């Protein structure tokens, strides 16, 4: 049964429209610019940052890289952000998390101009999303919404069960589903009868970070399953938060891991950057 939601293919389609938008902006004399700030040597962060730089280059977006040492002070980082806030070539500022211990993450995120906050983590943007008037939406949950849209899922009146309540995935994706008129349940580590909640979901969105903890036989037959989880098991294997093989037998549609939500995240970062550049051109 081919019920796989192909994140790579959807991401590629969106990247083509992004590339066309970038060409149109360039024809008007504007190149969208993304500043990527990496502090320290975290190997996973380095990989993410180089993937983001590569994706920018492919899309024709100017990427302004700032690689700072592990010992960078909070004041130095805040000064750089201030400079980027004022730099008219820059439409988006991304500070790769986590930051070294001496730096207060929330202070840094709040220093980014909300108009350049392409990650959507600034409290201003969180508030705009919560009040139903979003400016920037965080990339991973926005990617989930785009996947549902491309799969033809109409959320109106549907039961959506989100497992996970983090600020970067669970909470924002729940707000986005609510905005699409779904009836949303948010589950977390203290939820009682998780299988019972999941079984009610017409759409299940898993963002837990526990390998295959959502069992296939919890899934309502025909439900759409979006697995945000990325868990390394053993040396090389990656699995999601959903017991994929069993869930695939019951689901109407399901995302694989890898090749599901993963490719959407960077795509939506590019998307947000281009939207920001369009706003700059429009003088908004
Ligand atoms: P967090 O660790 O911040 O949040 C995990 C959430 O899951 C918490 O709300 C926690 O509950 C809940 N949880 C943990 N254990 C259980 C349990 N046994 N039953 C029910 N709920 C539970 O993770 P993130 O949201 O940052 O990420 C989630 C997953 O998504 C990870 O695997 C991460 O790697 C992946 N991810 C993938 C991205 C991509 O681009 N594909 C991007 C971002 C994340 P509580 O709040 O009570 O602690």
UniProtKB/TrEMBL annotation:
<keyword id="KW-0560">Oxidoreductase</keyword>
<comment type="subunit">
    <text>Homodimer.</text>
</comment>
<dbReference type="GO" id="GO:0035999">
    <property type="term" value="P:tetrahydrofolate interconversion"/>
</dbReference>
<dbReference type="InterPro" id="IPR020867">
    <property type="entry name" value="THF_DH/CycHdrlase_CS"/>
</dbReference>
<feature type="binding site">
    <location>
        <begin position="164"/>
        <end position="166"/>
    </location>
    <ligand>
        <name>NADP(+)</name>
    </ligand>
</feature>
<keyword id="KW-0486">Methionine biosynthesis</keyword>
<dbReference type="Pfam" id="PF02882">
    <property type="entry name" value="THF_DHG_CYH_C"/>
</dbReference>
<dbReference type="GO" id="GO:0000105">
    <property type="term" value="P:L-histidine biosynthetic process"/>
</dbReference>
<keyword id="KW-0368">Histidine biosynthesis</keyword>
<dbReference type="InterPro" id="IPR046346">
    <property type="entry name" value="Aminoacid_DH-like_N_sf"/>
</dbReference>
<dbReference type="InterPro" id="IPR020631">
    <property type="entry name" value="THF_DH/CycHdrlase_NAD-bd_dom"/>
</dbReference>
<keyword id="KW-0521">NADP</keyword>
<keyword id="KW-0378">Hydrolase</keyword>
<keyword id="KW-0511">Multifunctional enzyme</keyword>
<keyword id="KW-0658">Purine biosynthesis</keyword>
<keyword id="KW-0028">Amino-acid biosynthesis</keyword>
<dbReference type="Pfam" id="PF00763">
    <property type="entry name" value="THF_DHG_CYH"/>
</dbReference>
<dbReference type="GO" id="GO:0006164">
    <property type="term" value="P:purine nucleotide biosynthetic process"/>
</dbReference>
<dbReference type="InterPro" id="IPR020630">
    <property type="entry name" value="THF_DH/CycHdrlase_cat_dom"/>
</dbReference>
<feature type="domain" description="Tetrahydrofolate dehydrogenase/cyclohydrolase catalytic">
    <location>
        <begin position="5"/>
        <end position="119"/>
    </location>
</feature>
<feature type="binding site">
    <location>
        <position position="230"/>
    </location>
    <ligand>
        <name>NADP(+)</name>
    </ligand>
</feature>
<protein>
    <recommendedName>
        <fullName>Bifunctional protein FolD</fullName>
        <ecNumber>1.5.1.5</ecNumber>
        <ecNumber>3.5.4.9</ecNumber>
    </recommendedName>
</protein>
<dbReference type="GO" id="GO:0004477">
    <property type="term" value="F:methenyltetrahydrofolate cyclohydrolase activity"/>
</dbReference>
<dbReference type="GO" id="GO:0009086">
    <property type="term" value="P:methionine biosynthetic process"/>
</dbReference>
<feature type="domain" description="Tetrahydrofolate dehydrogenase/cyclohydrolase NAD(P)-binding">
    <location>
        <begin position="138"/>
        <end position="280"/>
    </location>
</feature>
<keyword id="KW-0554">One-carbon metabolism</keyword>
<dbReference type="GO" id="GO:0005829">
    <property type="term" value="C:cytosol"/>
</dbReference>
<comment type="similarity">
    <text>Belongs to the tetrahydrofolate dehydrogenase/cyclohydrolase family.</text>
</comment>
<dbReference type="InterPro" id="IPR000672">
    <property type="entry name" value="THF_DH/CycHdrlase"/>
</dbReference>
<dbReference type="GO" id="GO:0004488">
    <property type="term" value="F:methylenetetrahydrofolate dehydrogenase (NADP+) activity"/>
</dbReference>
<dbReference type="InterPro" id="IPR036291">
    <property type="entry name" value="NAD(P)-bd_dom_sf"/>
</dbReference>
<comment type="pathway">
    <text>One-carbon metabolism; tetrahydrofolate interconversion.</text>
</comment>
<comment type="function">
    <text>Catalyzes the oxidation of 5,10-methylenetetrahydrofolate to 5,10-methenyltetrahydrofolate and then the hydrolysis of 5,10-methenyltetrahydrofolate to 10-formyltetrahydrofolate.</text>
</comment>
